[in-house]
Design a protein that fits this description.
Elements lengths: L14 E5 L6 E2 L2 E2 L3 H15 L3 E5 L18 H9 L3 E4 L5 H8 L6 E4 L13 H8 L4 E4 L10 H5 L6 E3 L1 H15 L5 E5 L8 H10 L2 E4 L1 H10 L14 H13 L3 E3 L3 E5 L8 E5 L8 E5 L1 H12 L3 E5 L12 H15 L4 E5 L1 H10 L7 E3 L3 H7 L5 H8 L5
Parallel strand pairs: 1-4, 1-7, 4-6, 5-6, 7-8, 9-10, 9-15, 10-11, 15-16, 16-17
Antiparallel strand pairs: 2-3, 12-13, 12-14
Length: 401
């Protein structure tokens, strides 16, 4: 993609209006997981050292266009300052005279965090007037928040058309990883797609089967595929109204020579709780009083074999109810296999989506994957083949020489 990168530009003395995603977990006014802050800061520190002046915009929670004190981003200042290695100033406004004055007062190597952009209802309305106010805060707009790139908001889309714009380090890292995994993957390329419902990932499956060599289908989605083949579901989660969708995805996969891998045996139980009594049965023999909660051992071995020769592995969604043992076994084992192939250099592995990240952490292999995206909706829309508004705006941006 022809997207300008801020790291390729002379930033000395320039005010960079940076859209970050610092929507981090908080408890009692304290940051409980600073991962996003740390990753963001790592990319910004070199720019500060080169003399850039950072004006940071972010959202936090869903205040729905109103000022909600509990959703102020001021409590992020301490964690952000520690991660940046400089004292980050705070402005109680994200636009207007107060924010403009604070931004203009910055010196080389200094940083300013502005208040939650979603306190202004014009943000989510992608109001061009608010975009123009944001543009007054800097010299160059920098989008470093891939996770919000699927939102056409004033701080992600409107402002990018009103000033010289570029992608930040995290944005470029994310785009590079996803492009290598989906747009130009090394073949054979295999995807693992799990989750509860086929209906939420129709576009994802249709896009992947046209681009990759194989797709492993797990979770409740696999149940719907099995149901379409006439398998009894018992009390299992499945979608009877998606049978034709399953047939369409299968036809598309066949026409593009993409293999679909489904469970041949499953772990079933009569109740969904830790330590529940579990039975291993053929995928087409689920008892009437039980529910399918994981792929069985034979299935997992087949899935591992499918991964064995892969050069690219793309993962979105667990194989089963990984949150509760013993129904985490399938996801854990396949995740460890993908991690092993990554460590020995056989494959490039890219994973993303909230449940996926949690599953990889649960399996203890998150750090072994080539790239793990923290983006949720943006990651899914990328898998669907959509052009994300925040990225499209950067592609159209004209950068001043």
């Amino acid at each position: 993609m022809d997207i300008p990168a801020i790291t390729d530009m002379d930033v000395a003395g320039q005010r960079l209006l940076v859209r970050a995603d610092l929507n981090v977990p908080m408890a009692e006014g304290r940051v409980t997981d600073a991962t996003r802050i740390t990753r963001f800061a790592a990319g910004m520190k070199p720019l500060l050292k080169k003399g850039a002046r950072l004006v940071i915009l972010t959202h936090f929670g869903r205040p729905k266009g109103k000022v909600v004190p509990a959703m102020s981003v001021e409590p992020l200042v301490i964690a952000l300052s520690n991660a940046m290695g400089v004292e980050v100033k705070f402005c109680p406004a994200s636009s207007g005279p107060e924010a403009e004055a604070a931004a203009k007062a910055l010196k080389d190597g200094e940083a300013l965090l502005c208040e939650n952009v979603r306190f202004d209802a014009r943000e989510e309305a992608n109001d061009s007037g608010l975009g123009a106010l944001f543009a007054r805060l800097g010299d160059i707009y920098v989008n470093d928040a891939f996770s919000t790139a699927h939102r056409a908001h004033a701080s992600t889309e409107a402002v990018a058309h009103l000033m010289p714009s570029a992608a930040g380090p995290l944005m470029m890292e994310e785009i590079s990883a996803l492009t290598k995994a989906l747009e130009a993957p090394q073949s054979p390329a295999i995807a693992i797609v799990g989750g509860a419902k086929v209906s939420t990932k129709i576009a994802v499956l249709k896009n992947l089967v046209q681009k990759l060599d194989g797709v492993v289908i797990g979770g409740g989605m696999a149940n719907t595929f099995l149901y379409a083949d006439g398998a009894p579901m018992g009390a299992s989660l499945h979608e009877p109204d998606q049978v034709e969708t399953v047939a369409e995805i299968r036809r598309l996969a066949e026409s593009h020579n993409c293999d679909l891998f489904l469970p041949t045996d499953v772990a079933a139980a009569s109740e969904f709780k830790a330590g529940a009594s579990m039975s291993l049965v053929p995928a087409d023999k689920c008892p009437g009083d039980q529910m399918i909660l994981d792929a069985g051992p034979q299935s997992v071995e087949r899935f591992k074999t499918a991964l064995e020769g892969a050069k690219t592995i793309l993962w979105n969604g667990p194989l089963g109810a990984f949150e509760i043992p013993p129904f985490d076994k399938g996801t854990n084992e396949l995740a460890k296999k993908a991690a092993q192939l990554t460590r020995n250099g056989s494959a490039v592995s890219v994973a993303g989506g909230g449940d996926t990240v949690s599953a990889l952490i649960h399996a203890g292999v998150k750090d072994d994957f080539t790239y793990v995206s923290s983006a949720g909706g943006a990651f899914l829309e990328w898998l669907e083949g959509r052009t994300l508004p925040g990225i499209a705006a950067l592609m159209r941006a004209e950068i001043a020489a």
